[in-house]
Amino acid sequence: MHPLRRAARMLPLLAAPLLVAAAPAAIAAWPERPVVMVVPQPPGGAADAFARPFAQALAQRLGQPVVIENRAGANGNIAAAYVAKQPADGYTIFFGSVSTLAVNPHLYKSPGFDPLKDFQPITLTNQTPNVLVVNAAAPYRTVADVVAAAKAAPGSLNYGSAGNGNTMHLTGVLFQQKTGTTLTHVPYKGGPAALTDVLGGQIPMMFHNLNAVLAYEKSGKVRILSVADNKRAPLLPNVPTMKEAGAPGVVQVPWSGMLVRAGTPQPIVERLSKEMVEILKSPAFRAPQEAQGTEVLSSTPAEFADRIKSDYTSMGALIKAANVKID
């Protein structure tokens, strides 16, 4: 064989050990450029309000900028599908939620991603219970009042939500199942629009995130009758849980968390997990969030994966039983 041809054949064999050595070195040096955090809501939303200070804290710990990229639309499907197609290198983080990861796959025929296969969970970050909120002028002062009115005239009592299939709607579905009532769902294009009509008296009530209605409760514009959680909210110690109010089983605590593309190298997953959990346990980060009614969480990747699987199953069963359809 010609010497030059023999040398050409040997090059891949000689280069292979160098490539193998280079891969761990590249992972050890991660991140070497800015990291993008994809938020599935517009700027200024509740997710954005959590993600931005979190990204700033993460940037300090990683030594690289963490850039927020808002990709709103399709109840989070657009953002999730985008991240599911990115390289598995840790440079794209997804701020996912129960709606996107556990609800949407049961509502959309082709959401563009598989929540159980396309993502590597890192950590749960926060959760906020839904609450039953009524207009201040409404005659309902307890959950029992709402149940009595609904049973006296089935279907006559309206409740709003951010749209068909969201967790606000599903809390109402669960409430009807557990209390034996029939309510009329009024879907809006977003939670703020529904809340505006509750404040204006166009609809009497809705099930909404605590942190979205807390300020209105403090100003006396609405009444919060109950918390859809197994425990009372620290900022509302006098407001009963649904179980305490006579509606056991009505528990709906929407959560969010950080994920990356499935297949991301384990050392990067471990680095992100370590840094994120440290932020989430920091009093400096927690205090402003908790003051708004947000419960700050943290978890291992495995614990977060289990939460996704569990809620994926339970939400699917609820949606199927109630025959919930998207708009």
From TrEMBL:
Keywords from the named record: Signal
Pfam families: TctC (PF03401)
Keyword rRNA-binding attached: no
Extent of the signal sequence: 1-28
The keyword Cell division appears for this protein: no
InterPro entries with a match to the protein in the record: BUG (IPR005064), Bug_dom1 (IPR042100)
SUPFAM superfamilies in UniProt: Periplasmic binding protein-like II
Annotated PANTHER family: BLR1237 PROTEIN (PTHR42928:SF5), TRICARBOXYLATE-BINDING PROTEIN (PTHR42928)
Family: Belongs to the UPF0065 (bug) family.
The protein, known as: Tripartite tricarboxylate transporter substrate binding protein
